[in-house]
Amino acid sequence: MIYDVTVPISSSMPVWPGDPAVRLSEKTHLSRDKTHTVRLTSIEMGSHTGTHVDAPFHMIEGGKRLEEFSLETLTGKATVVEIHGSRSIGRAELDRLTWNGIERVLFKTDNSMHWQDGKFYEEFVYLDPDGAEFLVERNIRLVGIDYLSIDKFHSESHPSHFVLLKKNVPIIEGLNLSAVHAGEYTLVALPLNLQNADGAPARVILMN
């Protein structure tokens, strides 16, 4: 089974407040022999639109760029962990779980229900800094979450980003895990091959 956990990109999708809005504009021109219309789409959006990967350079001066990560880091065994009813994910929530053999973790929270809101959801569930430290201590290679930031809304210092990105742990934000159950999957996360990139939109699938 293949699960597409990517948020569809459209001009009406929610974006992080202050980020570039998504503008998809149809452009057309007549073919040279005037027998048909050629269509293409002009795409305007930020590098952290929808489902996307954060590289260390997003927050850290001189940090690793996205293209410096191997696809092996973004592809492989991943575990979807469901945490419901919590405003944030901290060490206490994570310590209750079994972490043996987990390499990449994707958090399914109440956030996944809010992709259909039609507007930006400010009260999204986030990862506490002590939760991020817990994951680093266990050598987790990649962390994903089902809304547009791993830090809480209005965070001024982005502490969880810094904990993970300083250790070169890439972050996938903006996942839609509503159709996926907890368990082990094969993750394929393919960001656009932007150069000198702080991040990029990605097509992300899970297979089992």
Secondary structure layout:
Blueprint: E1 2-4, E2 23-30, E3 37-44, E4 52-54, H1 71-74, E5 75-82, E6 88-89, H2 91-95, E7 104-108, E8 126-127, H3 129-137, E9 142-145, H4 159-165, E10 171-173, E11 183-191, E12 199-207
Helix pairs in contact: 3-4
Question: What value does the average pLDDT take?
Answer: 97
Main sheet characteristics: 7 strands, mixed, barrel
Secondary-structure content class: mainly beta
Global morphology: globular
Q: What does this entry look like structurally?
A:
It is a single chain. The protein has helices spanning 71-74, 91-95, 129-137, 159-165, and strands spanning 2-4, 23-30, 37-44, 52-54, 75-82, 88-89, 104-108, 126-127, 142-145, 171-173, 183-191, 199-207. The chain is mostly beta strands and 208 residues long. The protein is globular, with a radius of gyration of 18 Å. The mean pLDDT is 97. It has one domain: Glucose Oxidase, domain 1 (3-Layer(bba) Sandwich). 12% of the residues lie in helices and 31% in strands. α3 (129-137) runs parallel beside α4. The strands form three sheets. The protein has a seven-stranded mixed beta barrel. The longest helix is centred in the middle third of the chain and has 9 residues, at 129-137. It has four helices and twelve strands.
